[in-house]
Amino acid sequence: MITGTRIRTAGESDFAGLLELAAEVEHWFGPMVAEPGFHRALRTHLGRSTALVAETADGALVGGLLFAPAADSPGPGPAPGPGSAPVPGPAAVPGPDGARGPAVPVDRPSPDRESAEGPVHHVDWLVISERARGTGVGRALLARALERFAPAPATVEVITFGADHPGAVTSGARVFYERLGFTPGPAADPGPEGGSRQLYRLRRTG
Questions:
Q1: What share of the chain is helix, strand, coil (3-state, %, to 5)?
Q2: What local confidence, expressed as pLDDT, does residue 130 receive?
Q3: Residue ranges under compositional bias (Pro residues) (predicted)?
Q4: Superfamily (CATH H level) for 6-204
Q5: Cα atoms in the Cβ-side hemisphere of radius 13 Å centred on 98
Q6: Those residues with Cβ within 8 angstroms of residue 119's Cβ, 6 or more apart along the chain or in another chain
Q7: Measured over all CA atoms, what is the biggest interatomic distance in the chain, rounded to whole angstroms?
Q8: d(C-alpha 91, C-alpha 102), whole Å
Q9: Domain spans in the chain, listed from the N-terminal domain onward
């Protein structure tokens, strides 16, 4: 990572910095910065202490992650949609360390909170600033989230590009998650731009 970068829990004072990170990837995933639903999602995670940020020695935010532990995940039935979603998703993160990743709030699969592999958690949003892409920040954010929120045994899910989506190769999102042990699952609802999405799962056994 960039020398002096640390991973920490995000607070309300990081709200503006997280919006700046979102602004860097709106050209990929559509508007977020001006979306009230996205603002509510960020504040929900900040209030629950389920948002992490990567901060450089000079105080700049170069990465952010929103994680939904099983206790905060929606129960059976459809998840809240845009404008009312408690979390934004999907997280589509490219590059060998998770370069870019968010989309505006969308529905996500709502599996049972418990499975044979333990509780089911969700990565809702993961984004890395352009200056920090390729430095390991994305991997470090996800590792901290798993350590803190998803001790084994557990299942962690994330929605990313489908295999036929143009961004699947360009972004490197699927490769990023596969290198961290996630495996492809069923198709998810299309993204706001109409492109395909797919669920990825990580089984944590110990």
A1: 30, 25, 45
A2: 86
A3: 75-93
A4: Gcn5-related N-acetyltransferase (GNAT) (3.40.630.30)
A5: 28
A6: 69, 70, 71, 113, 150, 154, 155
A7: 44
A8: 5
A9: 6-204
- Cα-based torsion angle of the residue sequence 176, 178, 183, 185 in order, rounded to the nearest 10 degrees: 40
Specify whether the CB–CB gap between 126 and 200 falls below 8 A.
no
Position 171 scores a pLDDT of 75
Long-range contacts of 23-29 (CB under 8 A, 24+ apart): 24/100, 24/127, 24/129, 24/130, 25/100, 25/101, 25/102, 25/127, 28/100, 28/167, 28/171, 29/92, 29/102, 29/103, 29/104, 29/191, 29/192, 29/193
pLDDT by 10-residue block (mean), the chain, 206 residues? 89 97 83 93 97 96 96 40 32 39 40 64 92 90 96 95 84 88 95 86 91
